[in-house]
Design a protein that fits this description.
The complex is a heterotrimer of chains A (about 70), B (about 375) and C (about 180). Chain A is mainly alpha-helical. Chain A has helices at about 1-15, 25-30, 40-50. Chain B is mainly beta. Chain B has 1 helix and 18 strands. The chains are: A mainly alpha (about 70), B mainly beta (about 375), C alpha/beta (about 180).
Amino acid sequence: MPKLFVLIAAVVLAASCTSVEPWERERLSHDCMQVPVDADQARTEAKTEATREGAAGGIQRTGGGCGCN
Amino acid sequence: MQLSASSAGTLLLTALALAAVCVAACFDRATTTASYQHHQDDTGRISTPEVRSTVDNEELQLNTRWSADVISGATPVAAAPDAYSRASEFEQTRHEAQVGANWQQSAEQQWAGGVTASHEPDYDALALSTAVSRDILDRHATVIVGADAGFDHVGRVDDPLFSRSLWTVGVAVEFSHIINPQLVAHLGWDFETRSGFQSNPYRWVPVYDGSHRPALMLHEQHPHRRVRNAMEPMVVWAPHHELFVHMGYRFYADDWGVRGHTGQLRLFHADDSDRYRTGVRLRGYTQNDARFYRERYDDVQTLRTGDPRLSRMYSLTAGGRLELRPELFDRHRPRLSLNYDATLYRYANYPVRSSMLAHSWGLNLTMEWK
Amino acid sequence: MNHLKTTSSRSVGSIWIWIGALLTLTVGPGASAEVTVGDQPDFELTDLDGESVTLSEHRGDVVIVDIWATWCDPCRQSMPFYRRLYDERSDDGLVILAISVDENQTAVADFRREHRLPFSVLVDNDHKTADAFSPPGMPTSYLIDADGVVRYRHVGFRQNDADKLERYVDRLLDESNEHEETDR
């Protein structure tokens, strides 16, 4: 696990050396580069996952009762 | 005067629509979405109609949402009834409303906040959330820090005296970094603690005495507290200006002993004219069982569960999405989207079923006014 | 145990190889010197109809060079303002050259048609001109006087910026007209 963190930190460190100019950001600014691409769809998926799986929730937390016990 | 859930929902919907129309007058752009989602598996069906509205100008965005989960436990395909859960006998509706705002404080910093409330006959929930997002490193990276808190009240439809509560507090940190003009890396970490009643109030757990017949049935008993952690590295790559790839992994761990691994791949295609978009996704998920989970309880345990979500299981999901943006009107371009997912669940040590196939599909229509 | 140690050090070694490879891949060339106030830039580009356009051919006119893209929200918001400015002042000698840095040219053509842009929209999809100008943000507009000198540079666009830009344009147009009268 510590190796994974070292690798992630290294990727971030390496990435910080990059310079992406404002006029080079066409693809980066596309809706399909956003995470999630569709927040409402992601919420629906997260809700379904939370009612069927034990590790769901977390980052895309749905909150409240699911009513689907 | 008593207000039925459906009348309350209609009133709320009308109020939200009126508020949206009034507020829209002060903003540059407004969008309204009506959607319908349907989920079906061996345990039941959930139909979810939803209405969302957003208004925004250069600095402020306000959003409202109302949805209803119409839950039906009657299943036309299950071979065996769910012996552990009497909840499946119920048919009920859950209403959820959300109000939120995003404020662009400066070119680099944005704030978001929201309140979500839900109601169903045996469960009420209220959640508050806030987040701040800041661009750093000359706009090559973004850090988002979010926090949320929730209070749930758990009841039972067949016992008006039954009343339990559940508190949830969470913190999330996300870091995104632009690697090059086609690639962004994300890393998210999420921490959540839940304190209170976390069992299913309807679920009975059989305790056996060595024979095939249960000697006694006891209410499910989960721990009072649960601490959850998740970490999610992800990359988003655009190898072509019409093609986008999202690839992520999520590791989850909690103090009930559940460890989960999720891998996900999404591909999107957006055509040059932006008149249609398509997307496919593949998701694989696996988890081990909770420390106190037993396939069969042969003696009385303090902690006991019949929840398949705490068993050893895996799931595979494959789905697709089509979005159409026809040029029907000059300035009010509608968006119509359809989505479908199929998920196969396999349970290694859940005595009620060894597998289950679920289908989810949905339809969304969004209108935009400028 | 020794075996484990060996495996572990190999893994760490391979991580450093990856890091080295990543650094090599990600460190790009540094940005070139940017065009700023006082400079006298030039470029040659083609417009959406395939006609060649140079900045120097507009010497004697007041020119707004706007580096923009359809994917940039403030750029899109600025276009109705530039359209009005052009409609009202093109007879006084104002020229607008909108340099699109879009990779997707269908989107640029659709945008020009949808917003009925009356001025020249130039294509810089290989970013050579953008690299030479190195605008600090999107959009960036350069107000260039009749001598071809950048007199004012404006980064970004908000509705409140319109008045300021309009005042600068009027000042340059007044100067240009005074020059013409003096020359006569």
